[in-house]
Design goal:
By secondary structure, this protein is mainly α. It has one domain. The model has no long low-confidence stretch (mean pLDDT 91).
Length: 358
């Protein structure tokens, strides 16, 4: 919005020429989202306490989590508001990819809000059924995937890390692949959101990494130099990732151990789904599994745990996801969080390095 309001003034005042630069707008999108989250955080926390919109802890979870019962949840509403507001202010709102990502963010957020509301209404930690949730997620992802596939300039090739010439064309199967990436990413972040600040800290790392990927993929000269696919227009997603980064930093201020507020499913499902969408648009889908390696491991720990119990009647972990297993092994919650952040940072650097290691 500001791009359209202020950039035309560069004819009269040279200063406004800075609004043409994605880097400038990304910086201020980050700052805007962070400030909105920091300023509105205490207001939302107080309001959620008044209406008793508090967390219900799973009955079979670690006993140390019982003290978290009643902590305000659905804080993801604040993240969504900050990201959407900041993106609309600083991004080129005529860009189709911006609206696709905002749709994924809002769509997954509404599913998460329904789940959070069901938990509060039912006074338990179960929420809506898994089948209903995954069906709604697939619908949102299907809309995104089909829209992108129908764009005449969208390419359905899959870029494989470390291999310069390995770019198989998935054709119509790309729709199924995109749905898998978006829904898988959404659920993986949701499963990781079990410790104070763990998921949002990792989202911060992933959004910062895809901020870089979005910029270089949307810059023809840099993309050509690195021999990666150039996607015209996807550079504007840099602004979105900046807003996501800023909102994550602001939310972490209140979500850090001990958390004053939880993001809830409205936050985790939307953040994961939007990052998966960014990965699909920028053609760095496979790298998401590396950058978000912790999310992948957390999701796999649940899959293996359920599969093992159904097939063998035995559990692999004391409790899934993995962070709960480590808690029961005696690891302190802050130690798990910080160590996962460290690993997440290393994985992000590894993913960035693949741009040259081809």
């Amino acid at each position: 919005m500001l791009y359209y309001l202020l950039y035309p003034l560069h004819i009269y005042f040279g200063f406004f020429n800075v609004f043409r630069y994605i880097t400038f707008r990304t910086i201020y999108a980050t700052v805007t989202a962070m400030l909105l989250t920091l300023i509105l955080g205490p207001v939302l926390i107080e309001q959620l306490k008044k209406i008793k919109f508090g967390q219900y802890v799973r009955e079979d979870g670690p006993s140390t989590h019982l003290k978290k019962e009643g902590t305000p949840t659905a804080g993801g509403i604040l993240i969504l508001f900050s990201v959407i507001t900041s993106t609309c202010l600083w991004a080129d709102i005529s860009n189709r990819y911006v609206w696709v990502v905002l749709f994924a963010l809002a769509g997954m957020g509404l599913i998460g809000l329904l789940d959070d509301w069901t938990k509060i209404k039912g006074k338990n930690s179960r929420g809506i059924s898994a089948r209903r949730k995954i069906t709604l997620q697939i619908i949102v992802a299907l809309i995104v995937a089909v829209y992108l596939y129908l764009q005449p300039d969208f390419n359905t090739h899959l870029s494989i890390p470390f291999f310069k010439n390995a770019v198989p064309d998935l054709g119509a199967f790309y729709i199924l692949f995109a749905i898998l990436v978006i829904v898988g990413s959404s659920d993986a972040v949701n499963l990781t959101d079990g410790l104070d600040g763990l998921a949002i800290g990792l989202v911060l790392i992933v959004s910062a990494t895809y901020l870089l990927f979005s910029y270089i993929t949307g810059h023809s000269k840099i993309a050509d130099y690195l021999q990666i696919s150039y996607i015209a227009g996807c550079g504007e997603l840099t602004v979105f990732c900046g807003a996501l980064l800023g909102a994550s930093m602001g939310f972490l201020w209140y979500n850090a151990y001990p958390a004053e507020i939880f993001m809830g499913d409205v936050g985790s499902l939307s953040l994961g789904g939007s990052l998966g969408t960014v990965a699909v648009i920028t053609k760095h889908e496979a790298l998401l599994a590396i950058v978000g390696g912790i999310f992948v491991v957390e999701a796999l720990s649940v899959i293996f745990q359920v599969g093992s119990f159904k097939l063998r009647g035995k559990r692999i972990f004391q409790m899934a996801p993995l962070h709960h297993h480590l808690e029961l092994k005696g690891w302190a919650e802050p130690k798990i969080i910080v160590r996962f952040w460290i690993v997440g940072t290393v994985l992000a650097l590894l993913a960035i390095s693949t741009l040259k290691l081809r």
